[in-house]
Amino acid sequence: MNREPILFFEDVVLFEDELHDHGISILSVKVRVMPSGFFLLLRFFLRVDGVVIRVNDTRIYHQADTSYLLREFVTKERYIKDIPLSLSELSDPAAVFPHLHVVKEESEKLLLPPDVNSEVKGDIVRNMT
Q1: C-alpha to C-alpha distance for 24 and 90, rounded to whole angstroms
Q2: DSSP letter, residue 50
Q3: Cα(53)–Cα(72) distance, integer angstroms
Q4: pLDDT reading at 58 higher than 70
Q5: Cβ(62)–Cβ(38) under 8 Å?
Q6: For position 125, what pLDDT does the model report?
């Protein structure tokens, strides 16, 4: 299987707060552009020390030459006492993510207007689970 070349990639932290030494919250976005389209991941990571970890992920994918975007929203969380990781690993969203439970999941197909100059607004087709 040939991997498609990545034309552009960026991982940017938009917001970070240590919650007055009671945990951490981080909002970040990852952007990846390939010849066939682009992928965005907007992630909000929240750790309240001794209580809970929650992650809200919004993924958006667009394939070139299509008239729609695919959007997926997932909320995952779990009590810290139930996560089998060390304290240092609890600050890494990528390490924690597989150990969290899905609380909410939504998928949408966002239809784009046929012409950018058109006054027609995009429609949303929802598939909620």
Answers
A1: 10
A2: T
A3: 20
A4: yes
A5: yes
A6: 54
Q: Which stretches of 28-129 are DSSP H helices?
A: 93-96
CA distance 88 to 97: 14
Contact 78, 101 (CB under 8 A): yes
The token duo for 108 is 């949408």
The encoded tokens of residue 55 equal 């992650």
Please spell the DSSP secondary structure of 9-51, one letter per residue: EEEEEEEEE-GGGTEEEEEEEEEEEETTEEEEEEEEEEEETTT
Cα 108 from Cα 69, distance rounded (Å): 8
pTM, to two decimals: 0.83
Average pLDDT, the chain: 89
Q: Nearest-CA neighbor of 57 among 20, 32, 93?
A: 93
Residue reference for tokens 């992928």: 39
The C-alpha atoms of residue 103 and residue 23 are separated, in whole angstroms, by: 21
